[in-house]
Amino acid sequence: MRRQKALKYMKTDRNTVLRAAELSKLILTEDETEKMVTELGKLAEIIGNLDIGDISETGSEAAQPVSEAREDEVKPSAERDKILQNAPEHTEEYFCAPDTFDKGGDE
Amino acid sequence: MKYETVIGLEVHVELASKSKLFCSCTTEFGGEPNSHCCPVCTGMPGTLPVFNRKVLEFAVKAGLALGCDITRVFRFDRKNYFYPDLPKAYQISQLYAPVAVNGHTEIKTADGTVKTIRIHEMHMEEDAGKIIHSPDGKTAFLDYNRCGVPLVEIVTEPDFRNAEEVNAFLYRLRSVFKYLGISDCKMEEGSMRADVNLSVRPEGSEEFGTRTEMKNINSFRAIERAIAYESARQIKVVENGGTIIQETRRWDNASGRSYAMRSKEEAKDYRYFPEPDLPAFHISDDEIKRCKDLIPEFAEERAERLVREMSLPEEDAALITASRNLADLFEDTVKICGAPAEVRFWFTGGLLSFINETGRDPEDIALSPEKFAEFAGLVVSGELKREAGKKVFRALLESDGELDLRKFIKENGLETLDDGELIAETVRKVIAENPKPYEQYRNGETKVFGFFVGRVMKELKGRADPAAVNSTVRNILGNSLEKHL
Prior knowledge:
By secondary structure, chain A is mainly alpha-helical.
């Protein structure tokens, strides 16, 4: 319910685009911002059309619930040097990433 | 003006499943960095999470123990945030249909006041990794071993008014979770972490003040300090005509202060949405019943019962029931040997001081009730005197309950002595060896009497009946005194 309401009342104005850019870690130029306001506005309109139909009976609550779960068994983890290769930067022990000043995280 | 502090808690508890929430890597604490990782918990493209059944059992038990309603059809949701401790850039958590809601639990403060704390909800989620910051502040070194370890987050209503109530709740939570065997709740290892939401308001006011959230406070003592600091800070701001800003603050235990991390305007927008990689899960009535049947009697109720049924002093009952393993050992031993007073004597004196001295985890004490009962039986029947028994009991504990009691007693000559002649002989020997105290006694300093009794007991390795030694010492000293006169 909360999601449908959010869609219905969401206006794609300049502030919405700038907020979305911030969340996506994008820096937009003035031209790009204008373009996005128009294009995302059209997209939102199309998505807004979904409200026409009654979808209150669909969604995961209505779907047959499936309780596929696994047993609590430990299996060997990946070899460390192999898993570390998936990252562009790593030492012999750690993945590396640029540090941030906002010591947030750890939610 | 007088102010009232209003506090709500968000408590994260790591669950003790063997494997992670959505993959089969081990949840073991520590280990070489990134040695407990796989493509799933490091967020590689194309991998899919598979839910761990045990975590559901643990969460349902926790929910039931906290008086919650269990959500029959629950789902997971994605909480998006961009930070290096989270390789997927989202955490699988629960927002729309958490596993347990609307609970309550009772706490008891030091003055005996009982208060009900309401639980808003409890949800399951995965833990994040650990970041080590490079000294120059440019690189984050990432250890993802903790990534994907199952957590429950318990969110309370703002029902606390001071730090004592908060800690009473956390102690209760820890005790309940340990009794359920679902977490070790070690604050110092981070397996239990509390965030404190705090606001102040004039006493008597019904409206809430603006709250701040303090994150990651990792000891009971730190919680007390953080609450005292933050209440005082907020009251000062309000009294000086300022306004409290809704913000997240980080408690710094070293400086004893909290610092603003981010305000509401910069608050993270988590863009929650239902986790598409996991279906909805259904909990059947049978499953809930099975979990209900596995819920034990908890520490406080058990202590009350021991006081009632066995007339234990409250203090002893609290000590005995602090660990489920020890409480089971106590009750089973009493059941076998039928001598509660004797078992209590060795329990509170011998066993608990052994645990204190050696720093052993009470849950790891392997002494069996059968062995403990055999030992207590020897003392009750008089085959072993308490004094000599101390040495035997210590050896029994040190052997992890493996000691052959009779063999040990025999080999160390600790069996009870009822040889009156030997006692008398020993008394005479002790007097002869200690002419000075004897002299004192003869001069009327009767307080040295105890010295002779102690020496004789020691000489006889505590094997003799203290009453027999007492009267023998009295007789022999008295006789010699008469002779002397």
